[in-house]
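Archive transcription. Copying these from loose printouts into the bound notebook so they stop getting lost. Printout 1 of 2:
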Amino acid sequence: MSASLRSIGPVMLVGAGKMGLAMAKGWLDAGLPPSNLLLVDPNPGDAARELAQDYGLTLSQEAAGLQPNVLVLAVKPQIIDTVMVDLAPVIGPNTLAISIAAGIDIARLSRGLGMGRIVRTMPNTPAQIGKGITGAVPGPDITPADRANADALLAAAGPVVWLDDESKIDIVTAISGSGPAYVFHLVEALAAAAKKMGLPDALAEQLARQTVIGSAALLEADPATPAVLRQNVTSPNGTTAAGLAVLMEGLTPLIEATAEAARKRSEELGRG
């Protein structure tokens, strides 16, 4: 079953921060009518006000006035319990809830919202340019139509991966949710190495940044595995081989430890 963003009906987005606004813009660009989207944020920033003005959206400081077909929770996990209490008046019999709050499990969401039609998700920041990927777990009362509506909204930001085991969402959080920060730090580290070896700051940063941008674009365009792409760059006994001999000795266990730390934190957030 597939769904059209034009047919989903009223969508209320609670939390107009960077990720929430990125998702909202993706929905609008993919065909969600502006009249069907309500932004809710008690302290909206300039970006939220600009998006509302550009698209003619309603921006409210509190959730009131309608019972949406889809309620999207894009607030920080530290405040979600308080937010859910305030949402009780807008949850109707036809409301589907989608949460992007890291670490907050379906059982806790269900208790807070008083409903079971919930999809727990973990998008990532490349959603801002339609290059994200989202992990999603359906709650116990989700219907095929609910799943289709959630898929239509989430797919506006990039591919959607549906999981049957909710515990796996903590792994998704550690890999794709937090992963962009790991990649950005790689750019920082490459630039720092270039500076240490004598390149001017601006040139070092340009080389590091464009190297990762180009490599990602090649990875997207070429169906070969990352291992094959790596081997294609690596001449026997060449400069890349010399660098990889150092990098490959320690990178895998370091990334494993990094991801495990993020996964554990996701679990801790869920416990409150």
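Printout 2 of 2:
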Amino acid sequence: MPHVLLIEDDVSVRDGMELVLRRHRYEVTAAGTGEEALAVLDGPGGASVRLVVLDLMLPGMDGFEVCRRIRARSTVPLIMLTARGDDQDIVTGLEAGADDYVVKPVTAPVLEARIRAALRRAEPATGSGNTEDHAGLVIDRAGLTVTKLGSPVALPPMELRLLLELSAAPCRVFSREQLLETVWDHDYLGDSRLVDAAVRRLRTKIEDVPARPRYVQTVRGFGYRFGPL
């Protein structure tokens, strides 16, 4: 039973989601504020949390700040809930570290399907068994580790999958749609903003100057390719 941390301040909505998830055999810990949720993650049961569902509209500490603080602690998959579907909210949430988003009101089948997909994508990527040195960025495909100039680079599962996919074919240009299919899920009907946000987060960890990337480069009007320059 995967352990889901549900963060939602509306009691009726939270109770309904918790009931649905328990019916689908998830273990659920519910929190009404960001502070409660962070206490759960820092507590004895935090290590067992496999996925977070986070409402952006929270009292006190808002969902964006909660997302950033969770990312500072954990690489656990995180799905954010937004009531408005506002583009800027979505982009800000993704850049804060969310892996996916759902616009409320959301039906039980849609929420459960997105959770299943996120858990599936978080499973360890498969490696081909070789180590590659890309101008100081070393990717161990068997051990699924990344180092830069000898220092380990900690990457959440989705960013690692993205790097593995891009670096497997240096100089090849991947469209956002291709990356959604191969990195996120072959049947995932997602948003290309997920790709852009993941690329930006990846760059902050592997590039010397993220605004002038040498490893993951943008090909304007087409998508992305792996260097290095």
